[in-house]
Amino acid sequence: MITAEDGEAGVETALRYEPDVIVMDLAMPRLDGVAATQRLRQDARTRDTAIIILTGYQAQAMPLGAFEAGADALLMKPCLPEDLERSVRKLLQSEA
Chain-centre distance of CA 81, in angstroms? Predict the structure, then answer.
């Protein structure tokens, strides 16, 4: 697992390491989850990478366009570890 301190660093890290799945918060410093997802979808290295956005504000995620930006899943916080694991496994299986 690789972590980043904010959205801008998260995008740079994802482009550098090309992970199988990206899990990020909707509300991040410097670059929110929707803007980060848009950037990741524009780059060939991460265009098809599974993206899960976590949020404590589901009502805000929809108007902000999380799915329109290209997120594959949206999970509410607090998120149980098994729910996150289930989502990751489901996305990885759909890519196989």
Answer: 16
